[in-house]
Specification:
This protein is α/β, with parallel strands linked by helices. It has a single domain, classed as Alpha-Beta Complex (Nucleoside Triphosphate Pyrophosphohydrolase), CATH 3.90.79. It is built from 4 helices and 9 strands. The strands form 3 sheets. A 5-stranded mixed β-sheet has the order 4-1-6-5-9. It has a two-stranded antiparallel ribbon with strand order 2-7. The longest helix has 13 residues.
Length: 158
């Protein structure tokens, strides 16, 4: 089983911070998998991943979503792969400035330079080509409400 974490980070304009991997045509949330050798918890992992990928520090807020899935383009491929459980946290960039500009966020670390193609602030709506698909059903307002109410949504694709 793989355990991964993702961060939902919004700017003052209500745009979501997203990344695009080199081998994909869709946007995704920044994050990554827990490193077993580090014996880290979920919040430590997401802080480390964002710092490694984007070069910024974050404060982690509430857990918003949990998704369980198996990789694979076909049912057979999915059965042959491990289950992945992803935890999606609300987070804020720690910065003294009110609005952080995209130019201040950079690819950081070896993984980011090799694997990431783009970083952008995007409006979260049904037209955004983002994975996982369930994110298209939410708005910044509904996510902020979930964060305030400490509500968690669960999705299983297994």
């Amino acid at each position: 089983m793989r355990i991964a974490v993702r961060a939902l980070i919004f700017n003052e304009k209500g745009e979501l911070l997203v990344v695009q991997h080199r081998k994909s045509d869709f946007w995704a949330l920044p994050g990554g998998k827990i490193e077993e050798s580090l014996k880290e918890d979920l919040q430590s992992c997401i802080k480390r991943e964002i710092l490694e990928e984007l070069g910024v520090e974050i404060s982690v807020q509430n857990l918003l979503f949990i998704q369980e899935f198996q990789w694979g383009n076909t049912r057979q491929e999915a059965k042959e792969n491990d289950v992945t459980i992803e935890f999606f946290f609300a987070a804020k960039i720690i910065n003294t400035k009110k609005n952080i500009e995209l130019s201040e966020i950079k690819f950081a670390g070896e993984f980011a330079e090799k694997e990431l193609n783009k970083i952008a602030w995007k409006k979260l709506d049904a037209n955004l080509n983002i994975k996982p698909d369930f994110l298209k059903n939410y708005t910044i307002e509904s996510i902020e409400k979930m964060n305030t109410e400490n509500k968690i949504e669960y999705f299983s694709l297994v």
